[in-house]
Amino acid sequence: MVTVAAVVLWLGAAAGPVSAARRPVPAPWDLFGRGPVKLRGTVHRLAIPLPRPRPAEAPKAEPDTAEPGPPAAEKPASAAPTPSACRLALTETIAIAPSIPDIHGAGGCGGEDLVRLEAIVLPDKRQVSVKPAAILRCKMATAIADWIRTDIAPLTQGLGSTIDVLDNFDSFECRGRNRIVGAQLSEHGRANALDVRAFKLANGHSISLTDRTVPRDLRETVLHSVCARFSTVLGPGSDWYHEDHIHLDLMERRNDYRICQWNVYDPLPQTAPLLPAERPEEAPPREVAEKSDAAKSDAAKPDAVEPEPQSKPATKKRRQNRRF
Ligand SMILES: [Zn+2]
After folding, report:
1. Domain limits of the chain?
2. Ligand 1 is a single-atom ion; what residues have CB below 5 A from it?
3. pTM exceeds 0.70
């Protein structure tokens, strides 16, 4: 019984230790006349542990306030990682390409060792602006800079001017291939691709790479240049997404497999009297189609004949380009 009463009183004391402490000689204990001393002892035991946690918390608070110090000191070190070999090599004598923070987006988008390629510096110190500036991995930016410096600058100088602006149609963009939702991540999403639309020259002229009116030889020279430097080249004729620009990237594939799909179309023909002589290659399927069209309707003849001058040389060149 004594233990039961002690537990009951003990619980009462636990519920209100402060009030119990304020009444060191409570009237009820005097009425019972039993072991008030023991009970007070238990009350004191309960009251004692209470202050203990506080000193324990106090030391903890001190390290908490002190901890922000050391991490803050470590952050500057982590924010300045060792520059990559590529970064060290891509100096301002080659390109104006400041580093930017790594990007780690959803779905694998982003990359490391990124730069903002603002301009390419030619050997004669003149700068070729990249408009707008392109977000690229350092290696891709270096490849673009080498391409402009080594191949395109001399090419445009041969035209009596010099390249002044590289028309950037698209660089880093977190998206699927050909902007198809759910498609495999584009190299653009990895900051490993650049879409080029044109070169603008210092004399005010512009060379649109997919413009049929630009001399064919010039476009073919650019084709050979990019296909030798980049693992993926997509232009007109590759699919319906690259009719107005050239896609370049450095995607790595097994056995260094490369893709070079850019059909350099002929200018739109002004006359077509000699075109039938080129027929033999494509003749069988086309003649059959033509005959069937002619049999169906006489009105179809003019429509069927007119497009041939364009499509015929184009398919011929498509075959040639596939060899690269
Ligand atoms: Zn592209």
Report:
1. 85-219
2. 195, 247
3. no
